[in-house]
Input
Amino acid sequence: MGARERDKDFWYRLLSKEEKIKQGIVQDQIVCLVDSLLYKALDMSASDIHLEQNEDSMRVRYRIDGILYDQNSVDFDHRLPVLSRLKILASLDIAQKRIPQDGKIRIKVTNKKDKNLCDFLDLRISTFPSIHGEKMVIRILDQSRECLKLDLLGFNKKDLSVLKELISRPHGFFLVTGPTGSGKTTTLYAILSYLNNTERNIITMEDPVEYDLAGITQSQINTKSGFTFQKGLRSILRQDPDIIMVGEIRDRQTAQIAIEAALTGHLVFSTLHTNDAASAITRLIEMGVEPFLISASLMGVLAQRLVRKLCQNCKQEADFDKAAYKNLNDCDIKKSYISIGCVECLNLGYKGRTGIFELLMIDDIIRSLILNKNSSDIITKIAVKNGLKTLLDDGIDKIKQGFVSLDEVFRGVKN
Output
C-alpha cells in the first residue's frame, strides 16, 4: 500500500459515521436497513413511521389505521446512521440535533396493481430532540390514493346527496369539524377534487400542504415570514378565486375574513376542532363572530371521525350485549361483528378505515336558532327531530352493515 492509499485509509477511519454518510461513503447495510423500514411500512399501509431513540436501541413503530404497532427495533450502533441517512435524503442538517427540523423526501415505487406503472410517495420528515437523542416521525403521503374521492369516504346515500348539493352552490361557507386525526383534510381534498374543473379558480391555504392537487393553486403558511392564514386569505381575495379552502379557522380575524368572502360570492371551505356539528356554530360565536354573519353565510357543517373497518375476510358474528352498552337499549341492533385476525389483515382484525359522519344542513330553523344564540345542545336536539343523523347514529348503521365493530364506533365517537 502506497503512502497516498495509507493516508486515505487513515482519514477514512477517523471520519465519524455521520461524515461518511454526508460524503456519500455509506455502508450497504444502512442503505438496505432504511429501505426495508420504508418499504415494509408501505407494504403494511402505514401512515406514519416513528423512530424513537432510547438507552440501548431505537424503537420502531408503524401507525396503521390510526393505531401504533411496535416493529423490530434498530440496533444501538445503527440508530445514528439510519437517522442521518434519512436526514440527508430530506436535505436536513445532520449536525443539528438540538432543534426540531422538517423536510421532505419524494420516492418512486412500483404500482401494486400494475407493475408497469410507478407511483410517487412524499415522505414528510419531522425531527424532535429528546433526552435520549432525536426522535423522527415520517408521514407517508400517497399521491395516488383513491380515498380522495367523495364516494369512497363512507357517506350514506342521503348524506352524500345532500353534501354534493351543498358544495355545488355558487357561494357560501362550509365547515368540516372533528379532533386531530379525524380525516378533515382528506374530506376537504375530496371535496375540492369533486369541484375541480377548468372553469373554476380554486386556491388553498394549508399548514402544511399534504397532497398535490393538479389544477389547484395550493399555498403553505409560513409564520416565520409572517405569511399567516389571516394575511394569506386577504391576498387570496385579490386572486379572483371562485373557491377558497383555508386549512383551519384559528381566530376571529380569519373567521371574519372567510365569512366576508362567502358573503361576497365565494365558496369557502375550512375546518374547526369541535366534537360535533352544532358546536362549530357556538365556537364561532365564542370567537366573536356576529350571529347574523354566521346565519347569513354558513350553509353546512360536517362533523366526522375515522374508525377502523373490520377485515371482511375473517369477521364473525357476535351477540350484542345490551348490558355492556346501556345507552343503546333503544336501538334495534340484533347482532354485531368482530374479527379474529388473518393473513390478509396482518392478524390485526382490521383493514382500512372509514368515516362516520354528522352532516348539519343550515336551514331557516337552524338560522333562527343561531340568531338567538341557542346552545349547541338545543341546535342538535331540534336538528335530530328534523332528520339529522348523529355520529353515533351513522356508526350504528355501519355496525348493522357489518363494516365496523361496536367497540370501534364507541372509541371513535368518544374521541
About this structure: The longest helix spans residues 28-43.
